[in-house]
Structure formats: C-alpha cells, structure tokens
Amino acid sequence: MVALPPFLVHPIFRNRVWGGNRLGPWLAPTTTASDAYQRARTRGSVGEAWLVADLPPTTLEGKTRVASGGGSDETLADLLNNPLTRRALMGRALPRTVEGQLGFPLLLKVLDAAQNLSVQVHPSAQFSKSNPLMQEKSELWFVLDADEDALIYRGIRADISREQFAEHVQSNTLLDIMLSQPARRGDCIWLPSGVCHALGAGVLVAEVQTPSDTTFRIWDWGRQDPARPLRLDEAMECLLLGDDQRLDEFDMALPRPNVHGASISIEGLVKTKWFDVERWVVQPNTRLSHDGVGVPVVWTILEGALSAAPFSRPICRGSTIVLPAEHSGLDGSSGGDGVVILVTTLPDPLKNTVDFGGSRIA
Question: What is the pTM of this model?
C-alpha cells in the first residue's frame, strides 16, 4: 500500500473589498507565502487566505498546492485523481463528489475583516438538492484576534416573521433585528447553513467549513459593488428564522469532553457530520507523534512552533500540515514557547468518535 508523508500546503490569498493587512504577518514567514501575499496586495485588500481548498474548476485558483512531501507542486486534486494516492490520502473518509468530480471535503481559511462583511446566508441542504453546483455550506469561526469593540452578528430576533424580515431589508434597518455579540479571542462560533450572519470589522478568524464558496448576500452596509450582487431570492429560500435557528446551541454539534494534562490541554470545539475540530494547547518541549488513523487529519498552527520529522524546519504560526489517512509518520516536539494547534479531523464512517485525531502525547 502507498503511504504519503505528511505535507505542508501553500496558502492561496484572495482579494476582498473588506480585507485588511494582517494576513501576511499572521501566516508563517516562508518566502513562498510572503511572495504570494505581496502579489495579492498589489491587486487590492487581502481578505482571505485559503489554507486547504479543493473547489470545482468554476472557482478561480480554488485548489491548494502541496508545499512539501506529497509531490512537486501537486494539488490536492492531483492526489485524489490518482487511485493509489487517493487511498493513502483519504483512507476510509469519503471524498466529495460534484458533477462527477472528486474533491477534498474540507475548506479551511483565515479571514481578516478590516471592514464589515456582508450580511449573508449560505445554501441549505434542501437548496443544494435542486441546485447541485451550489453546495451546502456550514462553517465554524474561531476568533484569532479582535479589536476591543469588534462584533460578530449571528441570527435574527426570534419574534421576527419572514415578512417582517423582508421589510427590514427593504428599509435598510436589518441591523435593528440582528443579534450581535462582542468578538473575543478564543471564541468559537458555529454557523450552520441558513443562519443569517456577518463578521464585523476588526476581527481575524480561522474558518473551518464544508467545501463551498457560495454566499447569498442580503445586505452590504451600503456598498454598491456590481461584482458583489445581492441575492435576496436565494437567501430567502435558505433563511432560517425563529426557533429553527437553534441559536442557543451548536446545531449538529455533540458535547465534547475537554482534556487537561500536565503537558497538553485539548478543547473540543465542534463535532459535526462533516468534521471534528479541537484546539490543542501544548506546553513547551512536549513530544507529539502521529500515525495514520484511517482518515485525514489537518493541523493548523495558531501560536508557537513545532519541530517534527519529516520537515526540515520548524513549523510555525499559520502553517498547515495535512496528515494523510495512511502516512509515513510524524514525530516531533513543541518549541520553547509551546504550540497551539487547530486540529480538524474528517469523519470515519466506521467509528462514532475519533480520539483527538489519533495522536499520542508523551
């Protein structure tokens, strides 16, 4: 059986009207990442860094390239299209299929909102059944940094009807009925498809989501940009209101135990049918080892650094490691300041749970 080594990926930078200037400094200071970021800045504000992406060809530059280990500048799509490397990469996890094409079933980003994002909803499962090119989109925001007065908007007042919602959109008073909360570093916000939401100005978030780039904008803070049309009809078809929003709980999420030890603290953020996300806080000079666990696992370094074979240099903030389902092993340790890792594990159809991405902690 073919075994793929763990590999790093190149970030893809996306220009957004609401973007800022924090993504370059936040990401690991590799030459390739820095060069790509500077090229993106010449085209305008940089709002997103796509760390793991494998979207259909209709999305321009929507496929992450391998930076180490898996091959010379291959994409995730290249690995999936080869039956041998597909088995090593995916194991028991199921690739996404859109229009007969295979895809890696995860989209992982970092967003830098210097301005407010549009008020929006994402396609629901029911909508996607009749519109197969507009895939269901549910996502998790993990706040990496936030200005003191920054806000996150999530949900609509429970007493608002569909007719009242439409009236507030038409009268530009949508904010009067939206629910908001302060954005704080370390906050975890679950956004299932159909929940109306917006990321406020001054917030930097990691976003773990289903692999869809479809957004239905409802209101855009008075911005008039022909490249960013409002899509009210589609939004209203997908919009959840009242108790259907289930805002007092993580919709689709199951309770996860937190583990606190002398060398590591593991916080379960969300477990859904699409992915399992945890935050690991690892103390300085702690050994971390990982063997293939039958499904892909993705590590994104949020703070500190990790030194590990087979990588020739320390892996620092902003770097993302893909650990294939069947791989040749990773063995290393956290740096002198420790390391914080966002760990995303794809579901295993043969198991009900995955214990901390299959890692051994010594």
Answer: 0.92
